[in-house]
């Protein structure tokens, strides 16, 4: 018992009649945690080693084959799928061990446009049957660039994954009177209103036939939320079922200087 509880018991009974002592052996719990962490570290290594080899050999083959267009296309597919697996491993294994607290962020100031351009172009190349676009003013922002990239990969990746071919995925950055928002919208299968409050929960997946036919871990949005919170940003989802979804990050909050307008800006 803590002091307050003891105080309450004594005051309630007036005269102390005895003391309860609760004792729980934590050894097994601690051992389990240690075993779990060691297992995750090992698994992470076991996944990454073959992936590095796949990346290396694919690059080598891409640069040294006979120039046949069909071979190039197949190698590009191998590369893209390996990159997808990279992200799955990142999401699943890093989630277990990465500390997403504010103290662990590596914050620098960088321009947003080149980052959006790179990500959008790579998704457009990987998903030629979707239209992947972006629009943003030329602002610089203060953030952990790698973590922001991970958020964008999760959001744009989802937008494509949950949209049928022919769909549009648009990333829009807006600066309205100093409040900067970044939103990723799609014209996909949408999220039913009763499921919307839970999409940022750990391992949550929307329970509908359309969602179940698409593979996922239910971790991507949880990771986005944790990264947003570490930065002091807000994140929320709006959706119309069977019409489309928009995820919005509010890049304001903690520091008034969360973004700066005038490039060039020295790195911190
Ligand atoms: P997953 O790996 O399952 O996609 P996420 O955490 O990224 O995990 O998303 C959680 C759930 O929210 C998904 O399983 C899906 O049901 C739903 N969801 C996420 N993004 C979208 C989207 N753009 N359109 C429709 N549903 C989505």
Automatic annotation (TrEMBL):
GO terms for molecular function: kinase activity. Residues 42-255 form the Histidine kinase domain. It is found in: Membrane. Keywords: ATP-binding, Kinase, Nucleotide-binding, Phosphoprotein, Transferase, Two-component regulatory system. It comes from the Bacteria. The keyword Ligase does not apply. It catalyses: ATP + protein L-histidine = ADP + protein N-phospho-L-histidine. Its EC number is 2.7.13.3. The keyword rRNA-binding does not apply. It is an enzyme of class 2 (transferase). This is histidine kinase. It comes from Exiguobacterium marinum. The lineage of its organism: Bacteria, Bacillati, Bacillota, Bacilli, Bacillales.
């Amino acid at each position: 018992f803590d002091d307050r509880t003891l105080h309450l018991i004594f005051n309630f009974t007036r005269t102390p009649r005895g003391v309860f002592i609760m004792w729980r052996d934590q050894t097994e719990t601690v051992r389990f945690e240690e075993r779990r962490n060691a297992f995750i570290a090992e698994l992470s290594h076991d996944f990454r080693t073959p992936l590095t080899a796949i990346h290396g050999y694919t690059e080598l083959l891409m640069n040294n084959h006979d120039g046949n267009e069909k071979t190039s296309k197949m190698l590009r597919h191998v590369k893209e799928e390996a990159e997808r697996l990279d992200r799955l491993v990142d999401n699943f294994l890093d989630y277990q061990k990465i500390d997403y607290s504010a103290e662990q962020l590596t914050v620098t100031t960088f321009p947003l446009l080149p980052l959006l351009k790179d990500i959008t172009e790579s998704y457009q190349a990987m998903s030629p049957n979707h239209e992947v676009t972006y629009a943003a003013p030329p602002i610089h922002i203060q953030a952990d660039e790698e973590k922001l990239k991970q958020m964008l990969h999760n959001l744009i990746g989802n937008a494509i994954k949950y949209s049928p071919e022919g769909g549009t995925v648009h990333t829009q950055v807006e600066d309205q009177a100093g409040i900067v928002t970044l939103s990723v919208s799609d014209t996909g299968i949408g999220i039913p209103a009763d499921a919307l409050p839970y999409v940022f929960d750990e391992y949550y997946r929307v329970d509908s036939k359309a969602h179940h036919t698409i593979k996922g871990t239910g971790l991507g949005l949880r990771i986005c939320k944790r990264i947003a919170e570490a930065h002091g940003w807000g994140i929320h989802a709006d959706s119309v079922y069977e019409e489309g979804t928009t995820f919005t990050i509010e890049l304001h909050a903690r520091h008034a200087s969360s973004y700066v307008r005038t490039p060039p800006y020295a790195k911190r």
